[in-house]
Amino acid sequence: MKFILGSGxxxxxxxxxxxxxxxxxxxxxxxxxxxxxxxxxGRMRGDPHAQFSVPxxxxxxxxxxxxRWRKAPVQARVDDTLRAIFEATxxxxxxxxxxxxxxxxxxxxxxxxxxxxxxxxxxxxxxxVAMAEDELERGxxxxxxxxxxxxxxxxxxxxRAVLAVWLRAFGGRHKVMGDxxxxxxxxxxxxxxxxxFSPAALRVADRLITVTGGQGHPSLxxxxxFVLGHALLSSVRAALLDEPALIARPAFEDALVRxxxxxxxxx
Length: 267
Description:
By secondary structure, the protein is an all-alpha fold. The chain has one domain (17-263): Orthogonal Bundle (Tetracycline Repressor, domain 2). The protein is built from 11 helices and no strands. The longest helix is centred in the middle third of the chain and has 26 residues, at 124-149. The two termini are 34 Å apart.
């Protein structure tokens, strides 16, 4: 990979060299996706580790989206286009950094004319916000599968599996995660960000409670649920902003696990 998060919630770490060679022999028509984008989309669909394969409808509602997309993704072809744009952006962030990122460079890497990119996003900031929301949505979807898979698992192992969804976001490309989150915080009103992302913290808390069998425990209060979710995700966010390399360290994961286990009620 890989706002937002992990196993199923990540960007694929794909190499673009093959696409570059293909594109050199097959120039794309003006304004079109071109074979390079088609190759990217096909590879993402074929590789179980390639990301951007989850549909985007949950974020298409103007009332629920933080991003301001010019063109809503409403069909499979459009979804493939967005996946290629998102993956190209992630590759550029990982390799060259946020300062060098531009819509022209993104379009060139994805194999599109820049006009195609502008059909969806007015600028790179809006594109990065959309990436954050997409990764968040994918992470929340991945959580459901993790909870089912961890039914009956040892307490600590179940907690680690839930937290891994967020620690492996954007395919584990922590620099990408940090740049995306930094952009969201700089280019959105804090209340908008809180409105869109705060429910994710509570969802994480709920899933941790479920996998550890804490539902209905007398010590389980709304206050504990709030602190549990926000303490964990705030720690991840702070690490991404201050020192992204922390996310990959086993000691950081261990600390989050201890934090969660200390707050979760024992069934």
